């Protein structure tokens, strides 16, 4: 991937955002799902990728999906199939991209804590 000014991008950021308020174990499972499913969206050979774990509330996660769609980013939504969160959005995994591309959409999210 090259930036707009022709600079070669050697390192991508793989952002995943998990819903805050989950147990540490549940967050780790959601990060695993989101990272695994979104990694296949575009890690080209020879590119280093840094995983970035962020957290947000459910409304922020839904709003993020709208923003990602409107900007043409590929992403995966992790919807919980089991109680007590059945049918709820618990995580979003975003296609690996240069940091500068997603910075404006993600700067306000907190780093995830477990």
Structure, described:
This protein is an alpha+beta fold and 114 residues long. Helix content is 32%, strand content 27%. It has three helices and five strands. The chain has helices spanning 24-39, 58-70, 99-106; strands at residues 11-19, 48-56, 75-79, 89-94, 110-111. Helix 1 links the parallel strand 1 and strand 2 (48-56). The longest helix is centred in the N-terminal third of the chain and has 16 residues, at 24-39. It is globular and about 40 Å long. The relative contact order is 0.28.
* SS-derived structural category: alpha+beta
> Which overall shape is indicated by the principal axes computed on the Cα atoms?
globular
Alpha-carbon Rg, integer: 14 Å
- The number of E-state strands comes to 5
Main attributes?
about 110 residues; alpha+beta; five-stranded mixed β-sheet; 3 helices; globular; disordered N terminus
Provide a concise account of the structure shown.
This protein has 114 residues and is of the alpha+beta class. 32% of the residues lie in helices and 27% in strands. The chain has three helices and five strands.
SSE layout:
Layout lengths: L10 E9 L4 H16 L8 E9 L1 H13 L4 E5 L9 E6 L4 H8 L3 E2 L3
Parallel strand pairs: 1-2
Antiparallel strand pairs: 1-4, 2-5, 3-4
